[in-house]
Amino acid sequence: AMRDLSKCKELREAASKIYTKDTVLLEVDKEIFLEQLEQAFYFSMMTVYAQGMHLLSKASVTYKYDLQLAGIAKIWRGGCIIRSAFLNDIYDAYQKNNSLSHLLLDENVSRKIISCLQATRIVLAKTLSSANATPAFASALGYFDSLCSKQMPSNLIQAQRDYFGAHTYQLTGKPGFFHTQWENK
């Protein structure tokens, strides 16, 4: 979306006249913020790699590819486009356990994620408050927070589907499928 919007300069200029940025200018220590920004980038990069490896893992099971994820990370380390020291951590994680269900469950990776998490939240709070879009950071953190949630907000989607099409919904702690006559509520 960002790349696509970057080519729409006239549109962005027109929109910026209508929607003045509702910003909160935050005082930041530049040195500290740059460190936090680097940690947020590292967090996002690790999360994106973890998503990719998870997709490969799921595809391997679904299509019986028998992918060796450690081997894939090793191949990528020698590439010209994908270069990252983190590929060593990916390699180590899957070398230790090729059936690891998700890279973020690896002990070494989880330590690195935890060490960057607070800085990532701070960077996002500051960028959102100052009306600066950081969609990659926001998406990475949203994925992470969803992955770490015992319960997802799927019940809201179920309720909407039931309201608009009587598709029923399930309740936490109560077996079965339910439908509500929403117009009477």
**Mean residue pLDDT:** 91
Instruction: Tell me roughly what share of residues is in helical segments.
Output: 55-70%
Strand order in space, largest sheet: 1-2
Assign the structural class, choosing from mainly alpha, mainly beta, alpha/beta, alpha+beta, or little secondary structure.
mainly alpha
Radius of gyration: 21 Å
* Count of β-strands: 2
Shape: globular
- Tell me the β content: under 5%
For the terminal residues, how far apart are their CA atoms?
39 Å
Oligomeric state, counting identical vs distinct chains: single chain
Question: Could you give the topology of this structure?
Answer:
Layout: H1 2-6, H2 9-18, H3 30-62, H4 69-77, H5 86-96, H6 107-129, H7 135-147, H8 154-165, E1 169-171, E2 174-178
Antiparallel strand pairs: 1-2
What does the model show?
There is one protein chain. The protein is mainly alpha-helical. It has eight helices and two strands. It has helices at residues 2-6, 9-18, 30-62, 69-77, 86-96, 107-129, 135-147, 154-165; strands at 169-171, 174-178. A two-stranded antiparallel sheet has the order 1-2. Strand 1 (169-171) and strand 2 (174-178) form a beta hairpin. Helix 3 crosses helix 6 (107-129) and helix 3 (30-62) crosses helix 7. The protein is globular and about 60 Å long. The relative contact order is 0.11. The model has no long low-confidence stretch (mean pLDDT 91).
Which features would summarize this protein structure in a list?
two-stranded antiparallel sheet, mainly alpha, 185 residues, globular
